[in-house]
Amino acid sequence: MISEQEARKRREKVSSEADFYGSMDGASKFVKGDAIAGIIITLINLVFGIVIGAVQLGLPLAEAATRFSLLTVGDGLVSQIPALLISTATGIVVTRAGASDGSLSQDISKQLLAQPKMMYVTGGTIIVLGLLTPIGIVITLPVGGLLIFAGYKMSRTPVEEKEPLEELDEQTQADEMKSPESVVSLLNVDPIEFEFGYGLIPLADSNQGGDLLDRIVMIRRQLAIELGLVIPVVRIRDNIQLQPNEYRLKIKGNEMARGELLLDHYLAMSPGVEDDSIEGIDTVEPSFGLPAKWITEGMKEQAEIFGYTVVDPPSVVSTHITEVIKANAYELLGRQETKQLIDHVKESYPILVEEVTPNPLSVGEVQKVLGKLLRENVSIRNLPIIFETLADFGKVTSDTDLLTEYTRQALARQITNQYSSNGQTLKVVTVSGKVEKIIADGVQTTEHGNYLSIDPSVSQTILESIANQVEQLSLMEQTPIVLCSPAVRMYIRQLTERYFPQIPILSYNELEANVEVQSVGVVNID
Q1: What is the architecture of the domain spanning 333-410?
Q2: Model confidence at 177, in pLDDT bands (50, 70, 90)?
């Protein structure tokens, strides 16, 4: 929000104020002690003076009190004047705060002569003293007039002195732009960026009723609960290169999604049967690609009556951001983020973490396992179970693909509840034994791991069979799930990842024994 120069000035100001108030506290204690000592001395002089006058000198009590009161007051005034001067000088020296680059005389002169009004007040006070005291107007008038004239000249010079200061600031900024540090700072890439055209500024401006910032905070909290991953802070900025009503979401500098909003409209999604009486601008819902319409506020109530799902623009964009981040959460999990998660687990389970990392598994290998889970939309929030599995099998193999499979099986209850909540029957598409044998025979083992290698025509036939089964399930309004044996699950995932990234591929070992599974289709080849 601010430039580097402004940030540096603010830091210097805060540091200077902190030094000033710290020094001022010490100076006040010094002056306070001097003042208390002066008061005590004055009281002693007064009391013991009256006693000495009445006892030793034989004076009446009233006369002794009068004489020694005058002497005490006079002595107090005479002693307090140098004490006041010393305290003032000490305060000026101590409260200089040590943050100035100039000498003490330069600082005092600069501060005392900074305000021309002070010269007017000082000159006027000296002239008044000449009129009301025996000093005489002859002496005070020239001195006061000189100070007033100096204040007048000072009030005319700041405008002329401002230009060199501005030129100095511009020169400083130009020098800083030429320095290597100014170039290095440009290399930083924000993990998540949300850019929008100038027409969508009210969406993020709280003064205009925009609540996008609050929604993003809630998105980060929601995804932390759902995925177990701390989403980085989302950088929000306007971009004049975009269309006025356009926005885009970037992850690590790469554009992941783009959309368009009409702030004075509502997005209405059809329930399946469209009504011609609902008029609006045809569009596509950005999160799930459903056909929709932008309708006016006057048409909103009628659309809701006909069963349309009506959503306001802030909800549209927040849903889009949520879905894009969920789909690409694995890209946000690097080694540094994985180390933070490991440290978090270590606070409660130190022995468990010591059995996993740094031996037998490095932070990078743990990060690959967690990333593969996130890539298939499996939450990593239950880190203790994940680390228990890694501790058990990490000594047997360092293949992150196999470790991921073992981890998924350990998270069977979580995966089952994710796709079959409240004991509902899980409708799936199973893979035939013939297809599983073809895939198992096509697995090639190398020193760098296992990979699938089958004839392109065979793989195309398998993909077409999966597409047909998915289409039938979609017509039945069922979420497509492919179920296969544990031995070939990850290879079927490799085969379908590019063409059907959103379709979950589950194995029998990843489902609880008490869940009811119904096969509504079979992936097979002729």
Answers
A1: Orthogonal Bundle (1.10)
A2: low
